[in-house]
Specification:
Length: about 400
Amino acid sequence: MTNSVHPHGRHRAPLPPVQVPAAGPPPPRTHHPIPQAAAVPPTPVGHRAAARAAKPAKQRDAFFDNAKYLAIVLVAMAHAWEPLTDHSRAAEALYMTVYTFHMPAFIVISGYFSRSFDMRPDRLRRLVTGVAVPYVIFEVAYTLFKRWADDDPAQPISLLDPWYLTWFLVALFVWRLTVPLWKIVRWPLPLALAIAMLAVISPDIGDDLDLQRVLQFLPFFVLGLFMKPEHFQLVRRREVRVLSVPVFAAAVLLAYWAAPRMTSVWFYRRDSAQELGVPWWVGIVMTLALFGCSAVLTACFFAWVPRRKMWFTLLGAGTLYGYLLHGFLAKGSRFWGWFEEYEWLHKPLGEIFVTVVAATVVTLLCTPPVQRVFRFAMEPKMEWAFKRDAAELARERARSA
């Protein structure tokens, strides 16, 4: 027999005697209703569908759309100021100040949104259709436009020599392809700066694919690639916003002093130090100095970008449209001699007028109607050109389930 006393002193009740059922038919079995949810367990597909229904659609960040729109407006304004810089020191100072940070800001954002890029087939297809194909289309379109507007029928079509604004598409294509490499190196930003310094002292790079610009602007792309959301939160603090005002004022004063003493070609980052007629070490110093100045002014620019949704937030999705399309008007104004024909454009009121027109035109070119018209060139689908792998078909089936 077993002891009926628990080790801790508690007594257990004796077991009831075994009941032997009497002969006869078994008692009727009681049926308990089964809850519907437990009766048919949800399938994994059902779970995914319910999760998608419950999860709100991913929304665009208004801050970045605002930043892209304001940066592209500054790009267009600076292009409109370029013909005015020969006769106005103030215009030259504003031109140099804006050129210090407007493309770096745009490139930092491009790097930030390239963080997830890898060699997955669907992302490579988007790189081809959203960057490479627009480059080919606009390179041809710009060349044909120059032949007609500048009366230059001998202008060749060359995909190796980006004309005017198309250099950015070449650069973005190259930068994104290198994203996996930057993720495995130990000191990505110092390495990118070293590459930029080597480029500025290498005149033999030449003009093919505008590699000088690709390499000299590379540090800004790498900087954006490794930025985190908290970094953008840091520059949007109130004290940074207040401090940016005297910093911008000091930058304009410095540019006003430097305007007659240096060439603004340094800001284009398309030439080597030797091509600019200076010793090689000056190119290294200027590369580091311009990177520092651009980083500071870019931070000041981000500090004043609105965080909430504005009337122009929607236009942030169409900034590449505005960037490439406004080039026809910017170059056409030079080909047709508008700034030489209308002298009043070089007066203060004329400069204000040119600025307003540039901002208005690029704003209109970023609107959804313009995007719909030119989507065939900027975002072609091109399903016919690519084959689809099994992994992508599985992802599409999961999304449609």
